[in-house]
Design goal:
Layout lengths: L17 E5 L2 E5 L4 H6 L1 H7 L2 H24 L5 E2 L8 H12 L8 E2 L2 H30 L5 E3 L3 E6 L2 E10 L5 E15 L5 E8 L5 E5 L2 E7 L11 H6 L3 E10 L4 E10 L3 E3 L1 E3 L3 E4 L3 E4 L7 E3 L7
Parallel strand pairs: 6-14
Antiparallel strand pairs: 1-2, 3-4, 5-7, 6-7, 7-11, 8-9, 8-10, 8-12, 12-13, 15-18, 16-17
Helix pairs in contact: 3-4, 3-5
InterPro entries: Ig_E-set (IPR014756), IRK_C (IPR041647), K_chnl_dom (IPR013099), K_chnl_inward-rec_Kir (IPR016449), K_chnl_inward-rec_Kir_cyto (IPR013518)
Protein name: Potassium transporter
Keywords: Ion channel, Ion transport, Membrane, Potassium, Potassium transport, Transmembrane, Transmembrane helix, Transport, Voltage-gated channel
Length: about 300
C-alpha cells in the first residue's frame, strides 16, 4: 500500500452502553458501571448510606491490618515481646493494629531493621488514613438534606374556571427553608414531522413557583390554558407517550445556611383527572384551625372540564 493510502489505526472503541430509564429520562449506563465508583472513592463514600459507609471503613481497616500483618510475619523474630520464640500471625496482626492506631502498649516493639521500616511506613499511612476518614465523616455529617415530601399523586380539576394540575409538597423537618423554588416539567415521548421519536421536556408554568419562607406545606398549581403543554391531552394520550411530571425543588436551609435540593417524578398513572386534594386545614371547636397531615395524599371526586 502506498504511503498516501496508509490509514492510521483506529482508537480503541469505548465499552458498549445501554440505556436505562429513570424517572422519565433515559441515561447511558455502562455494563461495568460499578467500576466507576471505585475510581472515585470520595464520591462512593459520600453516596453510600451510613451502614455501607461504616462497612467500607471496617473492611478497609481490616484489610490494611492484614496486609501489614503479613509483612511483619515475614520476619519471625522482628517483633520483641511475643509469647513464643517466633511471631505468630495473630501477634503480627495485633501489633499492626497497635501501630496503625498509635496505641503502643509497650508489650510489643520492633526488634529488627525490617520491622522498624515497616512500622515507619504504617505509622505514616495511619496518619493519612485517619485524616481521610475524619474528613469524609465530617463531610457526611455536615451535608444538608432536603427532607421534602412530595405527594404520591397529582390531581386535575377545575380551579377558577380552568382545569388545573395540582400536587403537594411538605417540609418534613418543620424547620424554615428560605428562598424555596419549584420547577415542574412534562416529560413525554413525541414524534417529529419526519417520524423521529424524541423524549421532550415541556416546562409547566406554576401559579406560584417561589416562596420566601417554606415551613409546612405547599400546593403547586399549573393552569391548563392555551399555553400549557397539557392542553388537549387526555389520560390515554399521556399514557401512550409514557408521560411523567418531573418536579425539582431547591432552597436554603435556614439553620445551616446551605442550599438543599430535591426532585420527584409522577408517572401518568398517578395523575388523577376529576380528583382534588382533601383540605388539610381542619376546624376544631374551641381550638381554631390545625393542619391534618393525614390528608396529605387523600383525594375526593372534583369536577373537571375537558382540557381540549
Amino acid at each position: 500500500m502506498a504511503p498516501s493510502q496508509r490509514r492510521e489505526p483506529s482508537p480503541p472503541s469505548a465499552p458498549p452502553l445501554r440505556l436505562q430509564k429513570h424517572g422519565g429520562i433515559f441515561t447511558a449506563v455502562n455494563p461495568s458501571d460499578w467500576l466507576r465508583h471505585w475510581r472515585h472513592p470520595n464520591h462512593l463514600m459520600l453516596a453510600v448510606p451510613w451502614p455501607g459507609f461504616f462497612g467500607l471503613i471496617g473492611a478497609g481497616y481490616l484489610l490494611l491490618n492484614l496486609l501489614f500483618a503479613l509483612l511483619y510475619w515475614l520476619d519471625p523474630r522482628g517483633i520483641a515481646g511475643v509469647a513464643g520464640e517466633t511471631t505468630s500471625f495473630a501477634e503480627a496482626f495485633f501489633f499492626s493494629v497497635q501501630t496503625l492506631g498509635s496505641i503502643g502498649y509497650g508489650a510489643f516493639h520492633p526488634a529488627s531493621l525490617f520491622t522498624h521500616l515497616v512500622v515507619t511506613v504504617e505509622s505514616l499511612l495511619g496518619l493519612i488514613v485517619i485524616a481521610l476518614m475524619t474528613g469524609m465523616a465530617f463531610s457526611r455529617f455536615s451535608r444538608s438534606t432536603a427532607r421534602i415530601l412530595f405527594s404520591e399523586v397529582a390531581t386535575v380539576h377545575n380551579y377558577d374556571g380552568l382545569p388545573t394540575l395540582m400536587f403537594r409538597l411538605a417540609n418534613e423537618r418543620r424547620k424554615t427553608i428560605l428562598e424555596a423554588t419549584v420547577q415542574a416539567y412534562l416529560a413525554i415521548d413525541e414524534r417529529t414531522t419526519e417520524g423521529h421519536r424524541m423524549r421532550r421536556l415541556h416546562p409547566l408554568v406554576l401559579n406560584r413557583d417561589r416562596s420566601p419562607l417554606f415551613l409546612l406545606t405547599w400546593t403547586l398549581m399549573h393552569p391548563i390554558d392555551d399555553r400549557s403543554p397539557l392542553r388537549g391531552r387526555t389520560p390515554r394520550d399521556l399514557a401512550a407517550g409514557e408521560a411523567e411530571i418531573l418536579v425539582s425543588f431547591r432552597g436554603i436551609d435556614a439553620t445551616l445556611e446551605r442550599p438543599i435540593y430535591a426532585h420527584h417524578h409522577l408517572p401518568a398513572s398517578r395523575v388523577l383527572f376529576g380528583e382534588g386534594f382533601v383540605d388539610m386545614m381542619q376546624e376544631e371547636e374551641g381550638q381554631g384551625q390545625r393542619i391534618d397531615f393525614a390528608n396529605f395524599n387523600r383525594t375526593h371526586p372534583c369536577p373537571c372540564a375537558s382540557a381540549a
